[in-house]
Amino acid sequence: MRYLEFDGDRVSRLALGTVQLGIDYGVANREGRPGDLEARKILESALEAGVNCFDTAIAYGKSEEILGRYLPKEENIHIVSKISSAEFYDSFGESLERSLRRLERESLYAMMLHDSKALHGWGDRERSIIGSARERALFEYFGVSIYNDEEMKMALDIDEISMIQIPFNLLDSRALRSGWIEEASRRGKLLFVRSVYLQGLFFLERSDLRGTLSKARKPLERLAAIAEELGMTLPMLALSYVASTAPSCVLVLGAERAAQMKKNAELFSNLPILDKELVSRILSIAEDVPPELINPSLWRLDG
């Protein structure tokens, strides 16, 4: 496993995203949420591979409860959860305490906003809410999950935000084109990369691309050709691309089965580094991707 250092902490560069453990998730997921036994095996496989960072959220159904039940109570286990802006204003401390009870922890590694609404007009009220919870040692770091350039700029400018979760993948190049990764590193903020596989899009057969996803057919064919040149599958190329271009970031990958978790860890530990020419070719493909294709909330799968 590859690790990075952040503020004295050793964090695995691969984090297990656990939305799949709490709810049905992913366009390529045909089997739904794994049962508790399989969820335990997934977590065990992650720990055996050296993963020490786990991403969850209040909105992820049973995810926090599953983590609390099956993860060891060790200090070097870093759990990052997320809360909506509405809950942040209404009941931040109480919501944190409920999350900690479900997680069977005394403190979180990080709590992130699950949306950017609270960033607009950030000021004394927001700092006071965070300060009160921090005084009670309910979490170590505060962060936010962002979706676009405007939100990223706000997050970078807020001193209380130490960690930012961003979307980045073969079809979504904003993190590189807009300099998110470089600027976050310069300001000492840790980035978590989600959507590496774009909710499983890179695992789908071309015949399964319908509705909004039909717009991905041509760029995926071009990317698949690059992957074939390199002797890779498209998902392998997706992981290698993000790992190569975001070396200072934590990559959040989910798994529906323990075997998938094990495979992800093995791939991640043995990935080739893509050269600048290959990265440029991939960036040129992403240039023409319509915005609705990189935002799963805009996907329409009928038709």
Number of strands: 10
Helix-strand string:
EEEHHEHEHEHEHEHHEHHEHH
Largest beta-sheet details: 8 strands, parallel, barrel
Fold-level CATH name:
TIM Barrel
What is the strand content?
15-25%
**Quaternary organisation:** single chain
Fourth-level CATH superfamily:
NADP-dependent oxidoreductase domain
**Total helix count?**
12
Q: What would the principal axes of the Cα set say about the shape?
A: globular
Q: What is the name of the CATH class?
A: Alpha Beta
Structural class: alpha/beta
Task: Give the spatial strand order of the biggest sheet.
Answer: 3-4-5-6-7-8-9-10
Give start-end ranges of low-pLDDT stretches. none
Q: Which CATH architecture would you pick?
A: Alpha-Beta Barrel
Count of all domains? 1
Helix fraction, binned, reads: 40-55%
Please state the CA-atom Rg, rounded to the nearest Å. Answer: 19 Å
Task: Output mean pLDDT.
Answer: 93
C-alpha termini separation: 42 Å
Characterization of this structure:
The protein has 303 residues and is α/β, with parallel strands linked by helices. It has a single domain, classed as NADP-dependent oxidoreductase domain (TIM Barrel, Alpha-Beta Barrel). The chain is built from twelve helices and ten strands. The strands form two sheets. The protein has an eight-stranded parallel β-barrel, surrounded by five helices. It has a two-stranded antiparallel ribbon with strand order 1-2. Helix 2 runs parallel beside helix 11, helix 3 packs parallel to helix 4 and helix 9 packs antiparallel against helix 12. The radius of gyration is 19 Å and the shape is globular. The N and C termini lie far apart (42 Å).
